[in-house]
Amino acid sequence: MISTYSNVHRSFLQACSLHGTLTVPDATKIMVHLFGRYQPDDTIPDERRLQELIDQINPKLSRYQQKIVLLESDPKLPNYVVFANLSDSPLNRLQTTYPAGELSFFRVVLHELAATQGHKLEQIEWLNLTAKIEEGRNVTKSRAEELLTEWVSAGYLVLDEDGIGFGPKTQVEFDRYLLNNFPDQVEQCRLCKEVLFYGIKCAKCPVSMHKTCAKKYFKKVKNCPACKKPWTVALD
């Protein structure tokens, strides 16, 4: 991996900023392409080199309160690379794109996802949430369907066989908002104490942790940090 800041870093940052969220395989393809273009004599990097590249870029972003995050969250979903803007309230940034009624709907969605077991909603539940918007701020069910598509595309939500859940961008940018507003519904990782949306659960006790935290922890320790019994849950 190159040690000085180069066109590889600049172009990868530009791609992350443009897309907002990328699956790790897609981000890896971009990285490989950039190395082939700007550093053709270097060893072709693989997925394991992504974090190193991100770590070299992030110091340049800290002054702007931005960062790139390699997110390993739900064991059933892909891992993501997320370009995060942490400069102000994430809801304030959405005000430039969505009217008051749709922002109110987004708040309702966040509340329901935070309060629901497993942080997942069925699509029929999604449509029924339009009835919970503040009076005078209406969103039709047809518009709610359009918003679901938009917010999944933007990375705010995910839609899979288990339903609708917190997307990678929400997990990174809204973690403090959710912890402050829904402290009784949002879990924290046993290891890093940060907000936990979808993590690894112990088979023998209720403790949960981020997949990334668990991978680091169990390189040195073989027992659950809470119940101290041997860890048996797969980490991949």
Structural class of the secondary elements?
Answer: alpha+beta
- Total of domains: 3
Helix-strand string: HEHHEEHHEHHEEHHEEEEH
Give me the oligomer status. single chain
Q: What's the count of strands?
A: 10
Secondary structure: helix percent: 40-55%
Low-confidence stretches: none
Instruction: Tell me what the CATH architecture of the largest domain is.
Output: Orthogonal Bundle
Could you please describe the fold and organization of this structure?
By secondary structure, the chain is an alpha+beta fold. It has three domains: 7-85, Aspartate Aminotransferase, domain 1, CATH 3.90.1150; 90-182, Arc Repressor Mutant, subunit A; 189-235, Zinc/RING finger domain, C3HC4 (zinc finger) (Herpes Virus-1), CATH 3.30.40.10. It is 42% helix and 14% strand. It has ten helices and ten strands. The strands form four sheets. A three-stranded antiparallel beta sheet has the order 1-3-2. Strands 4-6-5 form a three-stranded antiparallel beta sheet. A two-stranded antiparallel ribbon has the order 7-8. A hairpin with a 6-residue loop joins strand 7 and strand 8 (195-196). It is globular and about 60 Å long. The mean pLDDT is 88. This is Non-structural maintenance of chromosomes element 1 homolog.
